[in-house]
Amino acid sequence: MKTLNYLLIGFALLTLSSCAFYTQTAPVAGLDPNGIKVNVVADLDMENAKTVTATVKTKKVLWFINLVYNERKYIHSPRYRGFSESEGLALYRAKNEADVDVILDPEFESEKHSWFFGIYKTRTTTLRGLGVNIKGYQKQ
Predict the structure, then answer these.
(1) What is the spatial distance between Cα 101 and Cα 89, in angstroms, rounded to a whole number?
(2) pLDDT-based confidence at 131, cuts 50/70/90?
(3) d(Cα 41, Cα 138) in Å, to the nearest integer?
């Protein structure tokens, strides 16, 4: 009987140890002024700009074992080091599914849950932005 009580108490403690977290970002690089300093000027096809969205769901156990396979293709840029892995996955997915060259004003919405003292974690990240293609380049 004592063993059953200990097991029930242990299960109750693990169940009560869950946690939830939610974040949302503001635009990273706006249209005016965009803050990007490069040596070329790109002509963007703003007439055919479209809203792009992508949602990525991840599940992890022990902080490094992925239970959901998201093709492990993500955008990583040294300019934007603040992007998490799930945000990079969402950027890659949105860019390729919408067939665009650039995503302007990307906004991320992320919902994270953890259970069993953080051993099992799930995260849903949604990206919304304006997808445009590059028509050409100009010399500066």
Answers:
(1) 16
(2) very high
(3) 5
Give the Cα separation of 73 and 79 in Å (integer): 18
Q: Tell me how far apart the alpha carbons of residues 45 and 43 are, in angstroms, rounded to a whole number.
A: 7
Query: Which amino acid type is present at position 80?
Result: Y
Helices and strands in the chain: count of H runs, count of E runs: 2, 7
Instruction: Please report which confidence band the pLDDT of residue 53 belongs to, taking 50, 70 and 90 as the band edges.
Output: very high
Contact 44, 135 (CB under 8 A): yes
- The band of 76, judged by pLDDT with boundaries at 50, 70 and 90, is low
Between the alpha carbon of residue 25 and those of residues 3, 22, 124, the distances in Å are: 48, 11, 14
Give residue 18's identity as a one-letter amino acid code: S
pLDDT digits (tens, 9 = 90+) for 81-111: 677 888 888 888 898 899 998 888 889 999 9
d(CA 75, CA 123): 18
Helices (H), 1-140: 2-15, 85-98
- Going by C-alpha positions, the residue among 81, 110, 76 that lies closest to residue 91 is 76
